Amino acid sequence: MRKFVFLAAASIFTWLACTNRQSSIATLDNTIHNWLTLHLDSLEAEAEHLQALVAARAPEPELKTVFRDCRRLYKQLEWFSAYYAPATSRQLNGPPLPEIEVEENKASDPAGLQVIEELLFPYDTSLHKALQKEAKGLVSSLIPLRHTVENTRFDTAHVFDACKMEVFRTATQGITGFDTPLSGWGLTETGVALQAVRDVMQLTGAPDSLLLRFDSTIAATGKVAPDGGFDYAQLLVSHLNPLSAAMTDWFYAEGLQPIKYPQALKNTARTLFDSGAFNTAYFVHNADAAPTPDKVALGEMLFYDNRLAGNGRRNCSSCHVPEKAFTDGLPKNVSLDGGATVLRNTPTLLYAGLQQAQFYDMRSPTLENQVLDVLHNEAEMHSSPERVSAWLNQDTALKSRFKGAFPDMQDSILPRHVMRAIAAYIRELHPFRSDFDRYMRGEQTALTAQQKKGLNLFIGKARCATCHFMPLFNGTAAPSFATTESEVLGVLKAPGAKELDPDMGRYIHTKLDELKYAFKTPTLRNISLTAPYMHNGAYRTLEEVMEFYNKGGAAGYGIVVPGQTLSADSLQLSSAEIAAVIDFMGALTDR
């Protein structure tokens, strides 16, 4: 009888726990729905207000005021929109550039708040029809966002993850003014976005200590530095990084269960700059290609084996020299036959595994495709995975090692095993051991005062961080790391020359006018070791590179490049400021 009573009590306790848990989930779901609906109503009303003012040809100051309010109201919803409805989010606040769909060979016109900003700063009345179209489109784009709100069930794990991703987004895009390059509202909107995240975190039951950390971070976004500028470095190391760390600590201390599906950043990453923050497998397109110690060891062996090349006299390290950050120090390397040069400058392989496209022209979506391309290329290797696997299969010991690394392997090493092994080795080339990384992890003396000044310029006045996104400093943007961007700079044939380099970049493989002279945004990590620069290797020093950007790319030299994505306006950087930015980039060298 006593046993029956105990079991009954245990059953009742379990039922109550499940009921309370379900009740808690239902309460949070209802609370978040109400919060989002209230804020979406406000944004919709203000967007309709903007549409009415545009139709009435209201004066510029009034248009800009209401537009600013629209942006702020959107920023309150960004944590939700960017996470739960990324396609809609792009329509609402995507870059003012065509969206390229390579597989379908078409480009879609940009839309949303960033396009409206370009039409209002400065306001050109001759473009009134275009402004009318964008204002109307903004209102229409809110319809699918409302549908997403209505059809989403919210739980603590996903809401928390969305909020944490928004903190990362503010650290890498918000403070840089990525989506407010003309109005300059980046820092102000960062405070707005963080306030919304704070409110949502409060709804999930976050403690007062965490909410107070939000308050101090929000306050810091409005503080002007003693020199009249803004100390982005201090905001990152003293506020944004500790904030995301405190959020993560609270989540796990509460015993809450994280989301299950893999993302680019590990759930346990406390900041964007943790040494083990990245989930390498996220960037792998096939489970069998995920790096393991055995695959990496085989890939490393192959990387340095001259038998890779058709003539038996070249391997991967012939062009990707470890001591030169896996580049070669040449404008363009010599072709396999020694009679000419290859098409482009050799890029670093460091951090190549943490991006969504390979080669300057982004023609390969994976590292495996890149290996295949290089092996087949007559100027580079003039070989093939089939030829490599043929001589590998003659070595019994190597066959045994491959079998251990690839359990699905039958009797022979296949071409795909060759490509996956080399790719696995390259995927592990992401040390994150620079002075900058040490500084971001709390070592205040890791950067000199000059380098901190350079970091602040890099994020602020020099606008480098709007294309070279932290923490990878390439074109793959946090926090999703889902796409890798290219830019049209109008690279010159030689520094200062008023002639474009003839290489058409991505256009060679995808015949869209928007891709003429477009090249992938490469990483700046280890850039002090990877001279010469640009896809043509024509720029010998970082000073030459900075001068090119400071003048506004090709446009600054009087050359018209349709579709130039780099602002044509001069950055107005002094020689001392350029030196500071270069000193900072030196702190991106891995030790």
TrEMBL record:
Per the database record, which ranges form the Cytochrome c domain? 294-430, 449-589
MF-aspect GO terms = peroxidase activity
Q: Which SUPFAM superfamilies match?
A: Cytochrome c (SSF46626)
Sorted alphabetically, the keyword list is:
Heme, Iron, Metal-binding, Oxidoreductase, Peroxidase, Signal
The places in or outside the cell where this protein is found are: Cell envelope
Signal sequence segment: 1-17
Query: Could you tell me which InterPro entries the record lists for this protein?
Result: Cyt_c-like_dom (IPR009056), Cyt_c-like_dom_sf (IPR036909), Cytochrome_c_Peroxidase/MauG (IPR051395), Di-haem_cyt_c_peroxidsae (IPR004852), Imelysin_sf (IPR038352)
Mainly resides where?
other
The record lists the membrane-crossing segments as none
Pfam entry (one): CCP_MauG
Which PANTHER family does the record match to this protein? BLL6722 PROTEIN, CYTOCHROME C PEROXIDASE-RELATED
**Designated name of the protein:** Cytochrome C peroxidase
Species assigned in the record: Chitinophaga rhizophila
Q: What is the lineage of its organism?
A: Bacteria, Pseudomonadati, Bacteroidota, Chitinophagia, Chitinophagales
